[in-house]
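Whiteboard transcription, Tuesday session. T.W. wrote the C-alpha cells on the left side:
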C-alpha cells in the first residue's frame, strides 16, 4: 500500500476539501488529486463523489477514514515516544478552544517551559471544538462543561460565572445586578446552537421557570458584542470574555446559578503522549496553585 496515497486520502477526508488538504500537506492540488485517484484505481473503489465544486465522502471512504484516523494517531504516538528520549526538545501540540482567554496564557507558559515544541491554536464553538478532537484535528481542547465520555481524559481548569451585558445607554447601565425574571420582556441575543454559553444560560432559564419572549441568534462572540453595543438587545457571556469595551456594561444575575467549569481534555488513548502529558502536568501545577476555584 502506497503511504503517500493513503496520506493524501486522509488529508482530504479530514479537511473535507482537496484545496485545504493540499495546503495542509504542502503539495499542489493536481498532485494530491492524482494520489487519491491512483488509490481509487488500484483498489477499484470510489472514495469521494465530486459534486460541483465540492466533494462528498462515500461509505467506503468513511470506513477507510476511520482506519486512517487510528493509523496516523499511532504514527504520531510513535514519533512522540522517540521525541521523549530527547527530553521534549521538539514535537508539536495542536490546541483547540472555544475562546482565547484561558488557552493563550497556558500556552505562553508551556512555550517558555518547552521552547522546542511547536504549537498551534484553533477556535470554534464548543461543539465544533469537541468534534475536532474526536476527528483528531487537535490534540488537546480547552472548553467548558465537558460531559463524561469514556473516550476522553479531562481535568478541571477553572470555575467561572456568566454575566449579562447591555449597552451604556441602556436603563440598566447604572445597576450592578438583575433578577433573571427581569430578562423576560427584553430581547436576548444568543450564540448559535452548540455554544456552551447558550446551553448554560438556557438551563438556568428552565430551572427558574422563565420563558423569554424574544431572542436573536448570532453566530459569533464578536458579532454578539457589536449587536449589544448597537442597542439590539442584551448579551450573555463568560465573565473572563467580557473584556474592557467601554461601550458595554456587565451585570450579574443574582438569583440563579449561572456558571461553567472549564476543562482541558484529550483523547484517552493519547493521554500518555509525552507532549500531551507535559501539557497536563502544567495544568496540574496550575491547579495546585489555586487556578481552579
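and on the right, the sequence the group agreed on:
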Amino acid at each position: 500500500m502506497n503511504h503517500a496515497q493513503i496520506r493524501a486520502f486522509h488529508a482530504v477526508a479530514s479537511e473535507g476539501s482537496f484545496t485545504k488538504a493540499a495546503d495542509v500537506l504542502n503539495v499542489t492540488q493536481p498532485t494530491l488529486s492524482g494520489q487519491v485517484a491512483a488509490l481509487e484505481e488500484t483498489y477499484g473503489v470510489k472514495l469521494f463523489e465530486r459534486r460541483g465544486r465540492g466533494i462528498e465522502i462515500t461509505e467506503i471512504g468513511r470506513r477507510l477514514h476511520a482506519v486512517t484516523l487510528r493509523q496516523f494517531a499511532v504514527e504520531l504516538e510513535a514519533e512522540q515516544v522517540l521525541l521523549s528520549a530527547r527530553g521534549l526538545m521538539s514535537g508539536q501540540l495542536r490546541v483547540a478552544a472555544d475562546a482565547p482567554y484561558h488557552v493563550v496564557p497556558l500556552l505562553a507558559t508551556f512555550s517558555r517551559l518547552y521552547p522546542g515544541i511547536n504549537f498551534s491554536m484553533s477556535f470554534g464553538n464548543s461543539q465544533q471544538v469537541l468534534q475536532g478532537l474526536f476527528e483528531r484535528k487537535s490534540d488537546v481542547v480547552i472548553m467548558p462543561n465537558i460531559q463524561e465520555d469514556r473516550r476522553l481524559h479531562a481535568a478541571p481548569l477553572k470555575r467561572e460565572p456568566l454575566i449579562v451585558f447591555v449597552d451604556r445607554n441602556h436603563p440598566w447601565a447604572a445597576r450592578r445586578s438583575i433578577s433573571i425574571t427581569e430578562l423576560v420582556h427584553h430581547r436576548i441575543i444568543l450564540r448559535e446552537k452548540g455554544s456552551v454559553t447558550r446551553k448554560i444560560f438556557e438551563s438556568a432559564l428552565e430551572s427558574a421557570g422563565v420563558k423569554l419572549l424574544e431572542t436573536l441568534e448570532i453566530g459569533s462572540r464578536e458579532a454578539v458584542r457589536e449587536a449589544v453595543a448597537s442597542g439590539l438587545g442584551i448579551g450573555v457571556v463568560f465573565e473572563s470574555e467580557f473584556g474592557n469595551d467601554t461601550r458595554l456594561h456587565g451585570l450579574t444575575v443574582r438569583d440563579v446559578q449561572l456558571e461553567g467549569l472549564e476543562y482541558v481534555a484529550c483523547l484517552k488513548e493519547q493521554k500518555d503522549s509525552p507532549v500531551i502529558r507535559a501539557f497536563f502536568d502544567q495544568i496540574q501545577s496550575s491547579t495546585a496553585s489555586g487556578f481552579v476555584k
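Someone added at the bottom: The longest strand covers residues 152-167.
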